[in-house]
Amino acid sequence: MGEYTGGGYGGQFAFILVIFVLLVIIGCAGFCGGVY
After folding, report:
1. Is 29:21 a contact under the CB 8 Å cutoff?
2. What are the φ and ψ backbone dihedral angles of 8, each rounded to 5 degrees?
3. What stretches pass through the bilayer (predicted)?
4. Most exposed: 6, 13, 22, 34, by fewest CB within 10 Å?
5. pLDDT tens across 16-32, in order?
6. Residues 6+ apart with CB under 8 A from 1
7. DSSP single-letter state for residue 8
8. Cα torsion for 9, 13, 2, 27, to the nearest 10°?
């Protein structure tokens, strides 16, 4: 692992990781906003 610039599994994994992090942040923001 380490080559995120190239295609294949590395690039796909990096893309999925970024989407996952964004979803978690948005979900946490919505949850905290609903609670508070």
Report:
1. no
2. 85, -150
3. 12-35
4. 34
5. 889 999 888 888 777 77
6. 10, 13
7. T
8. 180
Taken as a whole, the chain contains a residue count of 36
CA dihedral 18, 19, 20, 22 (to 10 degrees): 90
Longest dimension (CA), the chain: 42
- End-to-end alpha carbon distance in the chain: 40
Residue 20 has a pLDDT of: 92
Q: What percent of the chain has pLDDT over 90?
A: 6
